[in-house]
Design brief:
This protein is of the alpha/beta class and 122 residues long. 38% of the residues lie in helices and 18% in strands. The chain has a single domain, classed as Rossmann fold (3-Layer(aba) Sandwich), CATH 3.40.50.
Length: 122
């Protein structure tokens, strides 16, 4: 499924994986919700069963969420900065030291599938 989240809402995921959209307060920042908020929410609900792939993007959004996810035992994957249009978001995540794997989009897809298959066999 693909979920497009309007800038006026925040994506929430419950323990069963049900996705809901929550309206933001009128005073929230224009950059809210951030990727950090979404990743932290998922980490809190799924812990070591969760993972995040950080692709090309601006600013250092996702660094805080990646740290939080890694602390909960989740996997953090990042696009190789050399393959990014804009690498500042990826650079910020890599600088945290919690990235489990870095690669091109194709390599990331292959690694995530391999990790998923390995986890499913356990």
């Amino acid at each position: 499924d693909i979920v497009v989240v309007p800038t006026t809402h925040r994506l929430r995921v419950d323990r069963e994986g049900v996705i809901t959209l929550e309206a933001l307060n009128a005073g929230d920042q224009p950059n809210s919700p951030s990727i950090d908020q979404v990743v932290e929410d998922i980490a809190d609900r799924f812990g070591a069963r969760a993972g995040v792939i950080v692709f090309s993007g601006m600013a250092e959004d996702a660094a805080q969420g990646a740290r939080h996810l890694a602390a909960k035992g989740g996997k953090v994957y990042a696009q190789d900065p050399e393959t990014c249009v804009i690498s500042s978001m990826v650079d910020g995540v890599i600088e945290t030291g919690v990235v489990d794997f870095t690669g091109s989009p194709r390599a990331l897809a292959e690694k995530v599938l391999d990790d998923f298959k390995a986890t499913a066999k356990k």
